[in-house]
């Protein structure tokens, strides 16, 4: 047969492209345990014959012309290396088939986080943002085959037009890829390196949350207390300011979290932004707020500040209140007022102030030595803040 050289004992690369097309029925060796099997019907396919753990394995590599002679040899070589390394190519092939595509992986990550979402809105946004901006390109691609170019192209169209959305999508793509690393599907996270390939965002146009100068905060408390808002709404606002906590942490507060004897409020990790338990020292003013709130308690409600429906006060309740009273700030902005006051008018150390705000220490070396949450030192800081507010914001500490 033209183009075919019978295989010797150790010969490899025996077949030619012409032989692959023209050989008749039989089991034709190319050497290296690679064979072309030709059926009586003329159908032909590549077979790699291996011995794994003392047992013979016949591995199908596809059919010509879809799989060329050169491609069959390359795949055969890789499988022989796999066997030499002590693995089973068939088992590896089965594992490969079990690797999910990006869409499947993202859905698994989303389901795995069930119960860990801040709210239903965040839960829906997490997946819908990937459906809109990541799935079109990455969705059907196997999770171990995605590279930094794929991630970059997915983000390119929205990186400058929708910067906040793009940053969230990048973070969520990274979370899916981290999950894949943990599952053993890949060893790297290409989302970590795409920043250099994307245009820099103009952060000067980012709107900051409105905050009052710290000297005006005491007057804001007076305005709220003189308003027609419900007593619990007024008290929730006052506790928010005195503790410098986030709105959601205050609105969702439960009585079981408070120890008025030890003057401590322990917010569980599940309700914290960084998912880490946070202890808040309670000043005299904060305790007074809670004692007044206790008098408003009805039906042994677990919530300190229930709304009219029995659920926590809504996010809009406090936001709408300060807006209607002409207070030029948002509830979250009072944390900024506290931070400015502490940094500009007191000698309290920066790390004490940051712990009071439940901020994560960014410096890894510094964080490694942060064994304490500095609760007792924070008591003095928060007492100074409450004293400052009590005097109408007229003195430092």
Strand content: 5-15%
Count of alpha/pi helices: 17
So what's the CATH class of the largest domain?
Mainly Alpha
- For the biggest β-sheet, the strand order reads 1-2-3-4
Low-confidence stretches: 365-369
What distance lies between the first and last C-alpha atoms, to the nearest angstrom? 99 Å
Rg, Cα atoms, Å:
33 Å
Structural class: alpha+beta
> Based on the structure, what is the oligomeric state of the protein chains?
single chain
User: Roughly what percent helix?
Assistant: 40-55%
β-strand number = 7
The CATH topology of the largest domain is what?
hpI Integrase, Chain A
N-to-C order of helices and strands: HEEEEHHHHHHHHHHEEEHHHHHH
- CATH architecture label of the largest domain: Orthogonal Bundle
In CATH, the homologous superfamily of the largest domain goes by the name: Intergrase catalytic core
Mean pLDDT: 86
What general outline do the C-alpha atoms trace? elongated
| Total number of distinct structural domains | 3
